[in-house]
């Protein structure tokens, strides 16, 4: 009887972890890829975002030292 009392808290925590992971919403990650149509140095982020949306992505921004137009989408 006493051995079951020792394992009860461990089993309860394990069950709570299983339930919590099943109920937790999964977060989608953002993936970035270089725009295939943007040429030159990316200076104005609005231009990059507009072009990325025209290419079918969710958005875009100027990134990195070389200032490339990077389009974003959900992975």
TrEMBL record:
**Signal peptide stretch:** 1-28
Q: Name one GO biological process term.
A: defense response
Question: Would the keyword rRNA processing turn up in this protein's UniProt record?
Answer: no
Please give the PANTHER family that the UniProt record associates with this protein: DEFENSIN-LIKE PROTEIN 1, DEFENSIN-LIKE PROTEIN 7-RELATED
Q: Does the keyword Signal apply?
A: yes
Q: What keywords appear on the UniProt entry?
A: Disulfide bond, Signal
Q: Name one Pfam family in it.
A: Gamma-thionin
Q: What is this protein called?
A: Knottins-like domain-containing protein
**What is the native source organism of this protein?**
Oryza brachyantha
Which intervals hold domain Knottins-like? 30-75
Residue ranges spanning the membrane: these are none
> Known SUPFAM superfamilies for this protein?
Scorpion toxin-like (SSF57095)
């Amino acid at each position: 009887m006493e051995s079951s009392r020792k394992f009860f808290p461990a089993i309860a925590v394990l069950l709570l972890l299983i339930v919590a992971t099943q109920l937790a919403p999964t977060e989608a990650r953002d993936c970035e890829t270089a725009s295939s149509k943007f040429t030159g140095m990316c200076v104005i982020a609005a231009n990059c975002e507009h072009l990325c949306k025209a290419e079918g992505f969710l958005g875009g921004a100027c990134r990195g030292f070389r200032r490339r137009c990077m389009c974003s989408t959900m992975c």
